[in-house]
Design a protein that fits this description.
The complex is a heterodimer of chains A (about 425) and B (about 550).
Chain A (H helix, E strand, L loop, with lengths): L3 E7 L3 H12 L4 E5 L17 E2 L2 E2 L3 H11 L4 H5 L4 H18 L4 E2 L6 E4 L5 E4 L2 E2 L13 E8 L7 H15 L5 E9 L12 H8 L2 H15 L6 E4 L8 H12 L3 E3 L7 H16 L3 E4 L2 E8 L2 E9 L2 E12 L10 E2 L4 E2 L51 E3 L9 H4 L2 H19 L1
Parallel strand pairs in A: 1-2, 1-16, 2-13, 9-10, 9-11, 11-12, 16-19
Antiparallel strand pairs in A: 3-4, 5-8, 6-7, 14-15, 15-16, 17-18
Helix pairs in contact in A: 1-9, 1-11, 2-4, 4-11, 7-8
Chain B lengths: L2 E7 L3 H12 L4 E4 L15 E2 L10 H17 L4 E2 L3 E6 L7 H11 L4 E4 L1 H7 L7 E7 L2 E3 L1 H14 L3 E3 L2 E9 L2 E9 L4 E12 L5 H6 L7 E11 L7 E4 L8 E5 L2 E5 L3 E2 L10 H14 L8 E12 L14 E5 H5 L4 E6 L5 H16 L22 H8 L3 H11 L3 H10 L6 E3 L4 E2 H10 L5 H8 L12 H11 L5 H19 L5 H17 L2 H10 L3
Classes of the chains: A alpha/beta (about 425), B alpha+beta (about 550).
Chain lengths: ~425, ~550
């Protein structure tokens, strides 16, 4: 395996793959070193830009992000523009445009308008740039709407009866303008997956990529919709890994009504699709993705990162590049560790910023109160990690959930920050090259 | 007007057993519990079935009681009490070597069987032990899963006609002169207040006994003594392992199915409702646990919790461990001149049956009833002989063998009811919790038959949600079952149940969030908040129910 590159990116999630693609697009030789599968696999597959500020639902993410430059200058979105709100928005919009392009228009969305989507709990949440299959699920467009929700026999994670009742109650009691007339639950079976056997979303999605299972699924759906005068059909997020866009188009055409997938639990099928889209787009421009490689340490000399020491299984290897992007993620991906006393970043031993010694709040569901969520690496306006004592690693950039000063959980901003900062880190790495 | 022979207040081990005992003697009883069964001290302990070894030096009376009672429990409650065996080990240069002789002498005096082992033998039995031990004894310690023990006890009582009322709090005692005639009850589920009357009212509220007695203007000196426990993700030992020393903090590890519990502490508290866990106590448990086994430090801490022991008769300035752990039956007629009220308090889980027997004897005497106690020879539901074979059942029902095996392991003979559900309705064969292998049928069983009204109630009975994910992946699936099978529940009640459960689990997990368990928690937050949006919606959901 080649171990010398123009740029090495650590981490294969949204941030790392976006940065890597960006750098490779200008003809540079880029490698992504990834220990696991990429945490984007565990996402909902919908890209949230900013769902809440101060616990209020955001309707126009652009407006809020613009004001961050003044109100929360250390938020990653504010850092994007280096104090200039126009610049921040420009980077945001460019990165989204490019993302939409690489999805070959399988994603849709408008950065000035959040949509509100339903999920397996029968509750709702805002999001912004979403898979085509979710486009007709914007609850803000429903008035006295009659939905039919389809459950699949043996797929225990999604219960159509529960979803129907819960969503009906939630929308009608919490929304001022939007209402649901009725949500009708239906259960169908996919015969090729066996009867009364427990099945997972992964098995269903893989089956629906085959024509055999999909045609039977469609047949069942058609039968169940007869006699019910529904306006929209809701399905769990299971429409396939390869053929999901096409499957969705066929469903809408054959059923004659809009169909949407709702947001599901990790590891979700749309999250895995998104990971695949990002990997394909990076590979298409020549990025080499090396899996199962853990970066152990970095060799720094004269404020420059020279090499990375890695281990794969029992094999140690040294990698070398001119620039490096650290997109190793937060605690889940083990880009950060917390040993009960101290939070640390294991590769470069960068200082970790943490706002409060009390990492957790008294209540679990207290939005924005778990200060550990704000912990991470602080970066300069060029996305370089801030190191104490005036030190700097001149050829290192950081992006994604390893960044400090934002709470993806309560803000609903995870993939949006990853995408935009990854994009920005990639651009800065190119300048450095 | 509802009339009973006896009203029993308190749904812990003792209260449930008093109900069983009196029902077996033919009395008509009602059991009132302000929360769920075993939600007090009985469900907040390390689940040790005492051989008595722990007490042979300092509390010989308790040691004798434990030695006898643990044998009986292994007979009558074989579905929730298990003879794991236990070791007492002295750590070289740390534990006082003189304790060894005191221990041996105490075991002889109290009829606690103990067999001396060489350190090498002990290490062969428990390879994860600290290698630096200089003395070791084998004793007949075991483990108890208190939730199922108490639920099975209540089940038998109810099969004999007892009425089991959970979420029903006694808010006043009815008094006629100096006679207690009944109770006023607040039903927290239905929001109703009602009255019940009986010849005898039994206060079996353990550490809360003083609070109930106050309602009759009686003072009972009880010192709540807090114990903190930490659950780790692995069964480090096959047997219970104790330090061979005077009882002190963190000197025991009790194995439970696939986990182990490190215990415990003893801190006097002001009020029975007060049992906070502190970071220092958790650190101490891990530090002391690591003295018994260095592998504790590698383990993943799953949760921490605490409970209050009811110590009777503690005088000011007397520390918790000094007071005898034995129990008291208080005849308030003799003690305070108030008839119709009996209090049972003190004691420990291992002796709950004996405590109930003595209480029921007094009730029988008061009511002029000639019926002897038979609880020591009456097996609990599930403990009777059975020939259930997990591989046959797995084949017949087409379920994973681990699911069949775990179901039988939890319910023994009672598992038949669960397998019948599966046969009747194949959809109940699906797994609700894949950490602990709990089926929808088992969840349905607890809702139908075992007074499970909330997600936490289901989990305590089945162990669903008690595995390493601590509910992250099964909360929604359990909520589906609660929605399908519980009667008269609105969808908003289920949404509230989800939120309550998320917060209830948090009480134990928030103390141990580092390394892998922190990753787990963030994954759970991804489910509850990033997908379900409960962090932003919980207030609205709770408000919408008013």
């Amino acid at each position: 395996m080649d171990t010398t590159y123009d740029a090495i990116v650590i981490g294969a999630g949204m941030a790392g793959l976006t940065a890597a693609r960006k750098i490779a697009e200008v003809g540079k030789k880029v490698a992504v070193l990834s220990r696991g599968l990429g945490t984007t696999n565990m996402s909902t597959g919908a890209i949230d830009l900013l769902g809440y500020t101060q616990n209020k639902l955001v309707s126009n993410p652009e407006d809020e992000i613009r004001s961050f430059v003044r109100t929360s200058p250390r938020h990653p979105y504010a850092i994007l523009g280096n104090g200039d709100d126009k610049k921040a928005l420009e980077i945001l919009k460019d990165s989204i445009q490019e993302f939409l392009k690489i999805t070959k228009m399988a994603y849709v969305g408008d950065t000035t308008r959040n949509v509100v989507l339903s999920n397996y709990f029968g509750t709702y949440r805002p999001s912004c740039i979403i898979p085509l299959t979710m486009k007709n699920g914007n609850l803000l467009e429903f008035t006295d709407t009659k939905l039919m929700v389809v459950g699949i026999r043996g797929y225990a994670e999604f219960n159509a009866k529960f979803f129907a009742k819960s969503l009906h109650h939630t929308v009608n009691s919490f929304f001022r303008q939007n209402t649901l007339k009725e949500v009708v639950p239906k259960e169908i079976a996919i015969p090729s997956l066996g009867k009364d056997k427990e099945i997972t979303s992964i098995e269903i999605a893989e089956a629906l990529d085959t024509e055999y299972a999909f045609s039977r699924f469609l047949e069942q759906l058609k039968k169940s919709i007869i006699d019910i005068d529904v306006e929209i059909v809701v399905i769990p997020a299971i429409l396939g890994y390869k053929n999901w866009v096409q499957n969705h188009t066929i469903l809408e055409k054959e059923l004659g009504v809009p169909v949407f997938e709702c947001l599901s639990l990790p590891p979700s099928v749309p999250g895995q699709r998104l990971q695949q889209i990002l990997e394909n787009a990076a590979s298409d421009v020549g990025v080499e993705i090396h899996r199962g490689i853990q970066v152990l340490s970095a060799h720094i000399e004269n404020n420059e990162c020279k090499t990375l020491e890695t281990i794969a299984d029992i094999y140690r290897q040294t990698f070398e590049a001119d620039v490096y992007v650290l997109a190793s993620g937060s605690f889940i991906a083990e880009g950060l560790y917390f040993d009960g006393k101290k939070i640390y970043e294991p590769i470069f031993n960068l200082p970790v910023h943490s706002p409060n010694r009390n990492n957790f709040s008294e209540r679990r569901l207290e939005s924005g109160k778990h200060s550990i969520a704000f912990a991470g690496i602080q970066v300069t306006e060029t996305m370089k990690p801030i190191i104490e004592k005036g030190d700097e690693i001149t050829n290192l950039f950081a992006a994604g959930s390893i960044l400090a000063n934002y709470d993806y959980i309560s803000e609903k901003s995870g993939l949006g920050v990853a995408l935009t900062t990854g994009y920005r880190a990639g651009m800065n790495a190119i300048n450095k090259l | 007007m509802d009339r009973f022979d006896a009203i029993i207040i308190g749904g812990g081990a003792t209260g449930a057993e008093v109900a069983r005992d009196l029902s077996l003697r033919g009395l008509k009883t009602v059991l009132l519990e302000r929360n769920d069964l075993s939600s007090g001290t009985s469900g907040r302990l390390h689940g040790l079935l005492h051989s008595g070894g722990r007490y042979v030096v300092k509390d010989k009376e308790s040691a004798r009681e434990c030695a006898e009672e643990s044998k009986i429990l292994l007979e009558i409650a074989s579905n929730s009490a298990h003879l794991t065996g236990g070791l007492f080990v002295g750590i070289s240069k740390i534990d006082d070597p003189e304790f060894r002789d005191l221990f041996l002498q105490g075991c002889r005096e109290c009829n606690v069987e103990a067999k001396e082992l060489s350190p090498k033998e002990a290490l062969q039995m428990e390879p994860y032990l600290n290698e630096d031990i200089d003395s070791a004894f084998y004793v007949n310690d075991g483990s108890v899963y208190p939730f199922r023990l108490i639920v099975s006890t209540a089940l038998q009582a109810s099969q004999l006609g007892a009425s089991i009322q959970t979420y029903s709090e006694v808010i006043a005692l009815h008094k006629d002169d100096e006679t207690v005639t009944g109770v006023r009850v607040k039903d927290h589920r239905k929001g109703k207040i009602y009255d019940l009357y009986a010849d005898v009212v039994i206060n079996a509220t353990g550490v809360w006994a003083g609070e109930i007695a106050k309602l009759a203007d009686i003072h009972i000196p009880i010192t709540p003594s807090k114990g903190v426990m930490v659950v780790i993700d692995r069964r480090l030992f096959t047997r219970v392992v104790n330090r061979l020393r005077f009882p002190a903090n963190g000197d025991i590890i009790v194995p439970h199915i696939s986990t182990a519990i490190i215990g415990t502490t003893s801190v006097s508290m002001e009020h029975p409702d007060q049992f906070p866990v502190t970071a220092e106590e958790v650190d101490e448990m891990i530090r002391e646990g690591a003295v018994l086994s260095p592998f504790v430090e590698e383990a993943r801490m799953v949760r921490a919790y605490a409970g209050n022991r009811p110590l009777f008769g503690a005088e000011p300035g007397e520390e918790g461990r000094e007071i005898s752990r034995t129990f008291r039956v208080l005849d308030h007629e003799i003690r305070d001149g108030v008839t119709g009220l009996i209090t049972i308090t003190g004691g420990k889980l291992t002796t709950y049956r004996l405590m109930a027997e003595k209480t029921a004897d007094l009730v029988a005497q008061k009511l002029g009833l000639r019926a002897d106690c038979v609880t020591h020879k009456t097996k609990l539901p599930g403990a009777e002989e059975h020939d259930l074979d997990f591989s046959e059942i797995a084949k017949k029902l087409k379920i994973p063998w681990l699911l069949a095996d775990r179901t039988i392991g939890r319910w023994e003979a009672e598992a038949k009811t669960i397998f019948n559900y599966m046969e009747e309705n194949p959809i109940t064969r699906l797994t609700a919790c894949s950490c602990e292998y709990v089926s929808n049928a088992e969840v349905k069983y607890t809702i139908d038959k075992l007074w499970a009204y909330t997600l936490e109630d289901i989990c305590k009975r089945t162990q669903a949600g008690f595995g390493i994910c601590q509910g992250g992946l099964c909360t929604l699936k359990l909520a589906h079952q609660l929605f399908e099978y519980s009667k008269n529940k609105e969808i908003s009640d289920i949404q509230k149940a989800i939120i309550d459960f998320i917060e209830e689990r948090w009480k134990g997990t928030k103390f141990v969030l580092w390394m892998n368990q922190l990753r787990q928690e963030l994954l759970n937050q991804a489910v509850f908040s990033c997908v379900g949006n409960y962090d932003q919606l919980y207030k609205k959901i709770l408000e919408s129910r008013k």
